[in-house]
């Protein structure tokens, strides 16, 4: 705040009225202060600007429709949630993680000076799966001890069933989201070292280059040094690898469709060669007639005259 004031004073030539100082005391803001004391502040960490109506509907549903919930937008991805019940506020702020459109909503109780605290939205809850533990180490005590690499451990769950990858622990941790996601940790048992890998459930968007939640991969590439390796993070950190990188998703490879590919050649409906299906690419052929003779009722006519047309995916059964 002091830096902002100094910048304003250096930028503008202020007159006498603008240079005057108004003294405010606590009594002047007593009513608004009481409203703040019964509210939570929330910051959505990510590049996508959240829609106000979407946020309001999300929190109402996720928090069980708190009585007299009031949502106020304070800035881009910055919100105030008025909730009168103290127990309800405690339940919500200690719950989560709250994931909205693959971005995490970080909550904090209001306190004086919160707007000037750069670390107010630094920590958030995350569900972490811990893999590669020996089966005799699948215990809550081990989960708490291994989870100590995070800020705190709230809960440890032992899944009843295993899987092809073996058994694992589920741990609700408090993580520093200003730091890269932890990919794992090393444990030592009976003199032997073992790498324990982490996977994150319902993991919000994170940068595949620097590992920061809500961080843009484009910004990282502009600031990273020439000696830093890329792709230190990836979809393997997500449970089931259910999401691609938000920056690379549109350019990721998609396997060719299993539907049949058809086109028009000399006015006839013909099947495209199988090699074109394997390559997953379109081609073009000259157009000679306006009507297609074929058994498919969905194909009636061609559009207005053109020199070339693209093959269409019709999906004849």
Output the keywords.
alpha+beta; five-stranded antiparallel beta sheet; 317 residues; Alpha-Beta Plaits; 3 domains; 8 helices
Strand order of the largest sheet: 2-3-1-5-4
In CATH, what is the class of the largest domain? Alpha Beta
Give the overall shape, derived from the CA principal axes.
elongated
Largest sheet features: 5 strands, antiparallel
Average pLDDT for all residues: 77
Stretches where pLDDT is under 50 for at least 5 consecutive residues are 243-258, 274-278, 282-299, 301-317
The whole-angstrom Rg is 28 Å
Question: What would CATH call the architecture of the largest domain?
Answer: 2-Layer Sandwich
Q: Separation of termini?
A: 67 Å
Briefly note the structural class of the backbone. alpha+beta
CATH topology of the largest domain: Alpha-Beta Plaits
Task: Kindly state the percentage of residues in helix.
Answer: 10-25%
**N-to-C series of helices and strands:** HHHEHEEHEEEHEEEEHEEHEE
Number of helices: 8
The count of strands amounts to 14
Q: What is the percentage of strand-forming residues?
A: 25-35%
Kindly give the count of domains. Answer: 3
């Amino acid at each position: 705040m002091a830096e902002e004031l100094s910048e304003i004073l250096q930028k503008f030539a202020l007159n006498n009225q603008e240079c005057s100082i108004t003294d405010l005391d606590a009594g002047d803001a007593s009513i608004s202060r009481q409203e703040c004391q019964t509210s939570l502040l929330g910051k959505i960490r990510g590049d996508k600007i959240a829609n106000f109506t979407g946020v309001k509907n999300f929190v109402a549903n996720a928090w069980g429709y708190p009585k007299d919930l009031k949502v106020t937008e304070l800035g881009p991805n910055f919100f105030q949630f008025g909730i009168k019940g103290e127990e309800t506020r405690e339940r919500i702020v200690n719950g989560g993680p709250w994931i909205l459109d693959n971005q995490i909503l970080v909550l904090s109780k209001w306190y004086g000076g919160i707007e000037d605290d750069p670390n107010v939205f630094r920590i958030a809850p995350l569900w972490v799966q811990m893999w590669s533990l020996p089966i005799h180490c699948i215990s809550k005590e081990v989960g708490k001890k291994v989870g100590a690499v995070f800020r705190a451990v709230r809960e440890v769950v032992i899944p009843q069933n295993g899987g092809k990858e073996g058994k694992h622990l589920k741990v609700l941790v408090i993580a520093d989201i200003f730091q890269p996601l932890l990919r794992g940790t090393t444990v030592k048992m009976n003199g032997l070292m073992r790498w324990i890998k982490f996977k994150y459930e319902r993991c919000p968007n994170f940068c595949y280059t620097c590992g920061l939640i809500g961080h843009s991969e484009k910004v990282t590439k502009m600031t990273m040094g020439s000696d830093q390796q890329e792709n230190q993070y990836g979809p393997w950190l997500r449970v089931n690898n259910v999401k691609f990188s938000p920056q690379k998703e549109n350019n990721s490879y998609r396997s060719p469709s299993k539907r049949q590919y058809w086109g028009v050649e000399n006015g006839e409906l013909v099947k495209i060669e199988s090699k074109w299906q394997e390559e997953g690419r379109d081609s073009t052929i000259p157009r000679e007639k306006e009507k297609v003779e074929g058994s498919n009722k969905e194909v009636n006519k061609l559009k207005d005259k053109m020199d070339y047309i693209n093959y269409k995916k019709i999906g004849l059964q």
